[in-house]
User: Fold this.
Amino acid sequence: MTASRDEIEQTVTRLWQKLLGIESIGRDDNFFQLGGDALLATRLLSKLRQLYCHAELSWRDLHEHPTVAGLAQRIEQLYASANKQPYQPVKALFIATPPSERHEFIEKYLKKKIAHALRLDDDSFTGNLTWVNWETITADLIWDFRGDFQLPVYRHEILKRPAIEALAEFITVELEQRYGLRWVQTNSRPNFYNYETSSEPSLEPTKLSLSSRNKPAVFLLSAPRSGSTLLRLMLAGHPALFCPPELSLLEHETMGQWLQKRFLRFPKESGIVYNLLRVMGFTPTQAMIDDPQWQEMPVQEMYRLIQQHAAPRFLVDKTPNYAKSLTTLRRAECWFDQPKYIHLVRHPYAVIESFVRHRFDKFIGPEGVDPYECAEQAWTERNRNILALSQMVSSQRYYRIHYEELVCEPVSVMQGLCEFLKISFEKTMLYPYACGRMIGGPGDPDIFQHDQIDPQLGEIWRDIILPRPLTKETGRVAAQLNYGLPAG
Ligand code: A3P
Assistant:
């Protein structure tokens, strides 16, 4: 197995994204024109020399090949001439390693990566980590696992194992499972009332509704991994719409709760509300959390401020987590005047496969849950809740989009959606990667693996084979959404 130039290009792109702080980078972009200076170039070369250690890249190489495509080609040439054989990625080396040596392989890999994260020589680093602040190296490790092995690892998983040996053991097992080198038994079936009890509707959805409702807003609802980031970026191309990354506000009644449960736990992912607060003249801090004014400020009021900021554009709030609970969804009805709902649905096979590949169960499921069970539960419960909401509102306020149609026939789907929203159809919506849209923040971490709407992804569910049939309940919800599944 050898690395294709595409693979090297992807690695180079990720490095540039990290060093330059720019998410959208094309293969013909020029490192220096994007703001790469001498310092960044040194860091880039050092990282590339470490990754492709037999391709001795020089300054001259970077100056003569300053684009992603050019640099990747140069690395491939250098590697081939130095080794008389094509470059072998670390992932392929791991797969080729005998089972009894895999743990040692990953230990060595980790030692090298940690030494590099600490800016130490591989040789002078003994592996003694008693003095290391793991918080400082976690981001580098997450990035390396994703780049080298396509393995998404979460921060809490690394912080729980602050020693090379323990981390190596964990990563080895995860990689063996990922590459089919270790048998994983997945017999458990979702019990749809097992752990997501919050989906029970409450008759009193909010104690803290203001006396009047907010102006209409639009909610983009879906199960995770349904293509919601893509649709958000498409909608963001319309001048009449304001489509920030996930707000995660509707789940809370007061800003005190939001600060406590969201901002403190996921500060980086709270970026958009954080930034809006700053634009409005507030700086979220621990002190703010303790301030009674913020403790009790209704989230509905925060929405009102955001809507004022966005006016005259309509706010579109895309947060897949809302559909986890019908109580959360009902808040939209209480807080907004005639809100509209876009229900984005995707074939359960594609959602479940993507959910498991991204290891979302480690993030949203209870500890030790079977990933397939958690993924199926997420698809079925979220879609079931959105369908229940659709029964409570008039048909003029609910619109369903199938992801498969969106990516295959974006023009007609977006025309239909614009009619529903009572706005004109704008061609700019067909170019989700055009500049000027709010990117970053939570959402699909791989959105920039693409640079346009990819119709092929609408078909991938056909080739997915799940380890066991889906349950009858999933089949029932799927049938309501026009997806036929084989009997479970
Ligand atoms: P995968 O990358 O796992 O296939 P969400 O934004 O709701 O989390 O959904 C993520 C999914 O959106 C991705 O899952 C991918 O299938 C799809 N997607 C992302 N970018 C896309 C693009 N440019 N064209 C088509 N589908 C895209």
Summary: The longest helix spans residues 371-392. The chain has three domains: 7-81, 90-178, 215-253+298-480. The CA atoms of residues 74 and 370 lie 44 Å apart. The chain is about 45% helix and 5% strand.
